[in-house]
């Protein structure tokens, strides 16, 4: 997606670096730096990002940097540029090549590294790309360190003077590290095969999951059907994957499968479909997994951490079980931070980012899918029956309004007509509904979400709010 700044500033990074016109708004969104490849994210800028990230990260911890990428056509270009910047800062780079984001996060923590970088725009279309940073513990890089990298990019130096000296790093191709990640995926489960007798459809979205997902599920003994199963940069996420479930529903029905799983471009999120074509989103996954952990006494204070997007039906059903749902801002880093602060072990997002700290510190769509399938197998339940016994979600509708200006997106809350319409909607729905308007941190859109017990109210206020946002912010 195009992310055109309203204003920009010319930045000279270090002696001999070329100047760049960077947006005045923050470069780091909710999931790293993201834009249309070749516009904000160019090879020269990626070199500088790698250089300054390397200079700052090496102050935190020594070790190599792990690098991975999804299947986008621009990913190899950005990988080469980032590696050039990192090695010019004196760091060694381990390039894993095509792999899920969770593989980078796992290796960053498991191999005593300085951190990791994943090149991906997640669920975005093929023309976009992004750069996600992980710390040496395998979690998303702290915001304070992201701010230091951005400050260095803009100013050309950080308070301490960094110089590469005569120490240069090297880049090593390390595809075998992906196999260590695959071994990690199987560790929590019983001796293989453990899903024999299950028929599972996998939608790999032409993305990073194509590297490992089919082999991982076949090793469980399951009967596996794969769609969109090759790495294809021209088609990644196009009418497939976790944000487009129609083809998965059709495949589950055609093959009489027990369950279907759809991953996004970098496989850090997953959505499921049951044999009746019903969507099992992150709310359902958290509810089912939460029940299991609660029964096992492994869910501290019976608390699940989710975001403002979590459905009211889910929240009230979980409360009826004696549990507590805590909401955060959208973004798995916010969920993780709240989990750490409260000592919680399970959290995630409606979109399919799930974090269970018993097993991993970052979202992992493949690991989540394995756990859900394993739980179904051991419980000897049919997924449709479990859905029927869980909760009925409140009608919820999300509408995206394209707003190209970064500054307009950042300052949307200052728009009087939008705030007035939100107030009217909240007054009309009372305690039977809610409104959420927010700027996306990954796409050039304002997201309008309305949820209520009455579907007609949902449609009315979603359209009304989207029209006001479009009229006052999109032009």
Describe the model.
The structure is a single chain. The protein is globular and about 60 Å long. Helix content is 37%, strand content 22%. Helix 1 packs across helix 4 and helix 14 runs antiparallel to helix 15. The strands form 6 sheets. It has a 7-stranded mixed beta sheet with strand order 3-4-8-7-5-6-9, sandwiched between helices. The protein is of the alpha/beta class. It folds into 4 domains: 171 residues, Alpha-D-Glucose-1,6-Bisphosphate, Chain A, domain 3; 98 residues, Alpha-D-Glucose-1,6-Bisphosphate, subunit A, domain 3 (Alpha-D-Glucose-1,6-Bisphosphate, Chain A, domain 3, 3-Layer(aba) Sandwich); 92 residues, 3-Layer(aba) Sandwich (Alpha-D-Glucose-1,6-Bisphosphate, Chain A, domain 3); 78 residues, Alpha-D-phosphohexomutase, C-terminal domain (TATA-Binding Protein), CATH 3.30.310.50. Strand 17 and strand 18 form a beta hairpin.
């Amino acid at each position: 997606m195009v992310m055109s700044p309203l204003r920009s500033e010319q930045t000279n990074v270090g002696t001999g670096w070329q100047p760049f016109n960077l947006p005045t708004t923050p470069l780091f969104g909710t999931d790293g730096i993201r834009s249309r490849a070749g516009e904000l994210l160019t090879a020269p800028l990626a070199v500088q990002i790698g250089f300054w990230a390397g200079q700052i990260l090496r102050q935190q911890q020594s070790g190599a940097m792990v690098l991975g990428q999804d299947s986008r056509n621009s990913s190899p270009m950005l990988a080469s540029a980032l590696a050039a910047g990192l090695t010019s800062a004196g760091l060694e780079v381990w390039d894993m090549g095509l792999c899920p984001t969770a593989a980078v996060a796992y290796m960053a923590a498991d191999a005593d590294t300085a951190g990791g970088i994943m090149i991906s725009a997640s669920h975005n279309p093929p023309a976009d790309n992004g750069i996600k940073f992980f710390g040496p513990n395998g979690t998303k890089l702290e915001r304070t360190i992201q701010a230091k990298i951005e400050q260095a990019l803009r100013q050309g130096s950080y308070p301490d003077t960094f110089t590469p000296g005569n120490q240069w790093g090297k880049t090593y191709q390390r595809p075998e590290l992906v196999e260590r990640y695959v071994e990690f995926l199987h560790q929590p489960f019983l001796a293989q095969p453990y899903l024999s007798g299950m028929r599972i459809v996998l939608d790999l979205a032409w993305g990073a999951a194509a590297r490992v997902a089919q082999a991982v599920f076949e090793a469980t003994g399951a009967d596996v059907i794969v769609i969109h199963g090759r790495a294809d940069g021209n088609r990644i996420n196009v009418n497939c994957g976790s944000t487009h479930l129609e083809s998965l529903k059709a495949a589950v029905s055609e093959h009489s499968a027990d369950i279907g799983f759809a991953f996004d471009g970098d496989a850090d999120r997953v959505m499921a479909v049951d044999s009746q074509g019903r969507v099992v989103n992150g709310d359902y996954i958290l509810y089912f997994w939460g029940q299991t952990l609660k029964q096992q006494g492994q869910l501290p204070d019976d608390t699940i951490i989710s975001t403002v997007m979590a459905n009211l039906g889910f929240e009230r059903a979980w409360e009826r079980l004696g549990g507590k749902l805590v909401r955060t801002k959208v973004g798995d880093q916010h969920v993780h931070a709240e989990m750490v602060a409260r000592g919680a072990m399970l959290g995630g997002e409606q979109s399919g980012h799930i974090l269970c700290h018993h097993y991993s510190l970052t979202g992992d769509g493949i690991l989540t899918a394995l756990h859900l399938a394993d739980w179904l197998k051991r419980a000897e339940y049919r997924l449709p029956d479990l859905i029927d016994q869980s909760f009925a979600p409140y009608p919820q509708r999300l509408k995206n309004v394209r707003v190209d200006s970064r500054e307009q997106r950042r300052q949307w809350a200052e728009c009087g007509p939008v705030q007035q319409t939100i107030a009217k909607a909240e007054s009309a729905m009372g305690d039977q509904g809610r409104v959420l308007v927010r700027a996306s941190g990954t796409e050039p859109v304002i997201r309008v979400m309305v949820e209520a017990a009455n579907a007609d109210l949902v449609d009315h206020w979603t359209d009304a709010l989207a029209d006001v946002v479009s009229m006052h912010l999109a032009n």
